[in-house]
Amino acid sequence: MKERRQKNALLARHAAAAVARPDLVVSPAGQVVRAEIAGQAVFFTLTNPRDVIQKEHLAGRFYEPEELEIIRAHCPQAAVFVDIGANIGNHALFALKMLGVRKVIPFEPNPVALAVLRSNLGLNGELGRCDLAHLGLGLSDRAQGGLAMEVDKPNKNLGGGRLVEGGELRVIRGDDALAPEAVDFIKIDVEGMEMQVLRGLSQTITRCRPVIFIEVDEANRAEFLAWVAVSGYAIADTFRRYPVNENFLIKPASAGRPA
Predict the structure, then answer these.
(1) What is the pLDDT of residues 48-76, one digit of tens each?
(2) Which of 64, 86, 156, 217 has its C-alpha lying 20 to 30 A from 51's C-alpha?
(3) Residue 12 in contact with residue 30, Cβ under 8 Å?
(4) Is 161 exposed, middle or buried, given 0-12, 13-18 or 19+ CB atoms closer than 10 A?
């Protein structure tokens, strides 16, 4: 009860602060934020104002703007955009609303995030441009069940979860899910499982040669850079937000950044 009162009080403070901003509207219940971004109305579902992503949505903006601008600069027009580790849909919604992608295919195993993701897509009228067939599944280099989502700080960072043994969640190979798709862009943010995900996408990457935006943990950095070299890709851009990982934008080598 105390936590609910604190949450409601926090929402009320933000709602009051929004009164002077015509480009930002917070619903009385604090459940939906309407923002005006680049001349477009964008709706965000709000369930936890302390969450690192929802805190930005509450302020009427997308999370990780620097990363999103890198994606904007390199995402092909009318792309088929695969969002691996979609969380509550921040990047997927940006791609749909701001980049005009043709289709988004999100993968997200966290059941708590799924409800918010679906709501965000629905509120913005974007369900028709999304293939939601694989929601509830994670990706890896082999199919496996019996997994659970472990989140270190669920009240502050819902996206900081890792799959561990002991539950009912499943992972599959990306190649099995994406076999019929002509993929143009892949975003990967999977909290340390990026190399397993890349291995499970080997056929798709060879077949489609998509642009890839990927968060890489420091522990996987050397292995990732070796993978880039042998896979015929080149680093086109990077951005580091946190000390423990770095974001890489990679393209087929002929389109990459000169050394």
Answers:
(1) 998 999 999 999 999 999 999 999 999 99
(2) 217
(3) yes
(4) buried
Residue closest to 118 by CA, chosen among 129, 105, 127? 127
Closest CA relative to residue 83, chosen from 221, 216, 183, 231 = 183
For the segment 70-91, what is each residue's pLDDT rounded down to a tens digit? 999 999 999 999 999 999 999 9
Query: Which of these, 78, 68, 64, 73, lies nearest to 257 by C-alpha position?
Result: 73
Helix (H) / strand (E) element for 186: namely strand 185-188
Distance CA 79, CA 130 (A): 12
Question: What is the model's pTM?
Answer: 0.85
Measure the CA–CA gap between 87 and 157, rounded to whole angstroms. Answer: 10
- Conformational region of residue 125, where left means phi above 0, alpha means psi within -120 to 50, and beta covers everything else: left
Using the 8-state DSSP alphabet, how is residue 76 labeled?
Answer: P
Q: How far is CA 75 from CA 110, 251, 258, in A?
A: 26, 10, 19
